[in-house]
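Hi, here's the filled form for the chain we discussed.

Project: internal
Contact: R.S.
Residues: 363
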Amino acid sequence: MVGTLQRYFVPGLVIQSVLIGATYATGRETTEFFLKSGPFPGLIGLFVTIILYSLSCMVAFELARQYRVTDYKSFCKVYMGRLWFLYEIGFLYGVLITLSVIAAAASEFASDMMGAPKLATALTMMVVISALVYLKTSWIERIMSIWSVLFFSVFALVLVLGIVRFGNEIGRKLEVEAVHLDAIWSAAIYTAFSLAILPVLIFVARHFRTRKEALVAGSLCGPIVFLPALAIFLVLLPFHPAIVDAPIPISIALERLDSPNLVLTVQIAILGTLALTGAGLLHGANERIANTMKEHRKQLPAAVRPGLALAAMVFSVFLATEVGIIDLVAQGFRYAAYVFVLVMVLPLVTRGFWMLGTGRPAQ
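And the returned structure, exactly as it came back:
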């Protein structure tokens, strides 16, 4: 039973634990890429994202299993060949943008909900993430899986209370209307950015023994990863369109629910998720460096891992304070998505898919 859960559900839970903080925990990204298109078109766009994500994970997991690769350099080499380094360039940009969003989100969230100083919150988050990066892969995977379940449970409760309090308004907002191309394109761009983390977390594929296991686990990733986003989307609906310009949209919904205990629980869930997201990103980068040193018969000192993480977070905190979360999401995420469409997503779903049948690596 444990082995089945580990192979089928843990990959999606690990990815979810990273993506929640990177792409929708605060509601800012959900608002930017879905609610801006309108309630019903945004909902359809979210379902498009779930389907596209599952299909991409199915290809990625089976490639990783077939070629026995568990770090992003080796994985990208399988379907990108000599051009694998393009992903690394895009990944560096994506990590810095995402870490900056995390720092900005933590600062805004703690300031709005708890009155904490923004800079102090960002610095605390920086130290926590650096400490988490010190842990081994197995421990990080275990913590991420457990926290994903906790986060999902908390937001399931938020959704239930939201439906009880604002059910009529949610139903009214979701009246059927025409779904324009911009809504689908926005969903596709969001999917591309969300897929950018997949090579870094490809270590989750190390447990797959058969093609069936890889494909089933991949198909479950879309629903597992984005069901909390659907819950957040529905909770935010009653406040559309006023919520579109809010830095931390989820804060508005929580205030209207008028439940202090729930608000505190959600605060802890979101801040913890933001920390795990940063740790997951930086752990993947550290694994890449460690594997490179291993190729040269050297070992990455344990103390270097949090040191590299700390350096990246210092830059990200500076960027967050200079730009702000709204512009980081609206512009930084979109530009990063365009990069990953070209250097990672298109090669994965074209050449990568073709390779599943040929069994031959890219040259």
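Let me know if anything looks off before we file it.
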